[in-house]
Amino acid sequence: MTGGGVYYSFVCVGLNSSISVVSTRTGTGKTVVLGIDKYLAPTSLDSFDLFRGKSVCGGLFGGLKPKLDIPILLDHYLKKELNLDSFITHKLKFEQINNAFNIGVFFEKYTD
């Protein structure tokens, strides 16, 4: 289908068992892992694929550098250049915090 594999593949599942470089192109293929299973949990890859020029890299927080980037983002928010408020879909009282982990929170509207 791809004529030799894709140039980039993205693993977004967050399970170590889903990390694979099989679908990437030999010599130049890169797999970007965007989710992690358990912190510092070991993973295994087929070494033959790595020796054929395929590579794997991770993207923790999308490459955000917290000490540098968060103050910049905060400044943009305070200047109304970054609209984060539109992402708030529900407001819960502290007593309702467990509802946030229930799928029903997306169907019920909670307000102050």
UniProtKB/TrEMBL annotation:
InterPro entries, alphabetized: GroES-like_sf (IPR011032)
GO terms for MF: S-(hydroxymethyl)glutathione dehydrogenase [NAD(P)+] activity; zinc ion binding
Cite a GO CC annotation.
Answer: cytosol
**Organism classification, top ranks?**
Eukaryota, Viridiplantae, Streptophyta, Embryophyta, Tracheophyta
In its UniProt entry, the species of origin is given as: Arabis nemorensis
Query: What biological-process terms (Gene Ontology) are attached?
Result: formaldehyde catabolic process
Q: Which Gene3D superfamilies did the record assign? A: Medium-chain alcohol dehydrogenases, catalytic domain (3.90.180.10), NAD(P)-binding Rossmann-like Domain (3.40.50.720)
Protein's UniProt name: Uncharacterized protein
Q: Which residues form a coiled coil?
A: none
Report quaternary structure and partners.
Answer: Homodimer.
Q: Which UniProt keywords apply?
A: Metal-binding, Zinc
